[in-house]
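Protocol step 4 of 6: structure prediction from sequence.
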Amino acid sequence: MTAAPKILAINGSERDGNTADVLRHAAAHARALGVEFEVVDLRSIRMERCGPCGDCNDRTVACAVGDDIPSVVRRMVEADGIVFAAPVHGFGTASLMQTFIERAGVGYLRFDRPLSNKVAGIISVARRYSAGEVWAQLTVNALLNRMILVGSGFPATVHALHRGDAAKDEEGLRNVERLVDRMSDMIALLREHRELTGRDALAGGDRNERVGLPLNELVSAG
């Protein structure tokens, strides 16, 4: 029997607030479709900031900082799809998500791009301003990791200020539901292709795109 599709959401909020409520809504919708939906709350894990070692461009092995990032990365690799969700803080991406992008991306994901061809979805939550900017940053991060990004028509941005406001943004939540629908459909399509052909729909496993860049070679030589 084929295992149920699994989506893992990364919640970049510092509190159990509107972003968490939006992900609970997404989870309920996903489970109604027969999709497993789990959430990693970055506020609940042990995550150090990048240290002063400065050898990220030269090292050929994973980051030496000891925290929970490796276990989160493993869960991402095991999932079929990943949702990156973050609120707007100070007109930008909440600091927990920014730290996670730096630590996971530079410390682990850049070596062989293990998230290649996984299905990605983006959710941002804001009172009013900069929802698009945060959505765009998370989108670029997914594309950098060679993920397959599905659209929801209008972006899955939810407007909220006080706790409970997210539930009142009917249009935003419809876009979140549409995002989950399309992620589920894309996961099913990729699985069907793999079953019919015995191979992935898109090639993967090539070397990191940073290798061989003239600027990188200059940095390494210096």
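Step 5 (inspection) to follow. The domain at 6-221 is CATH 3.40.50.360 (Rossmann fold).
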